[in-house]
Amino acid sequence: LIRYSMHFASWKERKKIAVALRAIYQAESADAARARLEEFAAGPWGQRYPSIYMAWERKWEQVTPFFAFTPQIRRIIYTTNAIESLHSQVRRSVRVRGHFPNDRAATKLIYLVLRNVESKWKRPPVSWQQAKSEFAIRFGDRFGAMN
Asked: Is the pTM of this model over 0.85?
């Protein structure tokens, strides 16, 4: 949504708008984020680029579930480089394998890629260790099986 929002802004103002949007997605709760979104809409950037506000408004139901997580987990979720790296490793493994006899075989391959992804990082995402602890607490058995 951040990248999509930047498509509406001029090149000169993208950094300033990104700072204004950061206040929304780094808010403590969904209610605080909603208040910050309304402040954005009423402020100079919302007046100048109403399409950014409308895009956030349309996707608000998809944004609010992220506020159920702690800030460490949210940072990992919206850190684009880490997610893109993960996706590229999964795509590469699937492409090398070629075809799968059934869905279970594909699921196993993806599981193995996810299990070994951390060992291939040259540098883990910022706050990964904190997020990893949070994942272990929140998801218990499912996360523990991957370590």
From this structure: no
